[in-house]
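sry for the spam today, last one i promise. struct tokens for design, 67 residues
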């Protein structure tokens, strides 16, 4: 189930930002993921948040690589 939601995140980002400069968005996504990794909460819960953020970061990385 989570995979399907993450795929929706990826598709939405790829579709919406396909023709845009995404450098700033990629930087912000990376910083957000890095911040989440520092949260002092249960590791399993933190990992769920980080996985979502990695999905978003990865989508922006894919778009940046196309340029």
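last one done:
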């Amino acid at each position: 189930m989570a995979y399907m939601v993450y795929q929706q995140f990826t598709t939405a980002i790829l579709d919406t930002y396909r023709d845009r400069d995404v450098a700033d968005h990629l930087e912000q996504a990376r910083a957000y993921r890095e911040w989440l990794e520092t949260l002092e909460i249960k590791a399993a819960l933190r990992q769920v948040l980080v996985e979502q953020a990695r999905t978003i970061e990865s989508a922006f990385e894919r778009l940046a690589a196309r340029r």
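The chain has a mean pLDDT of 95. ok im logging off now
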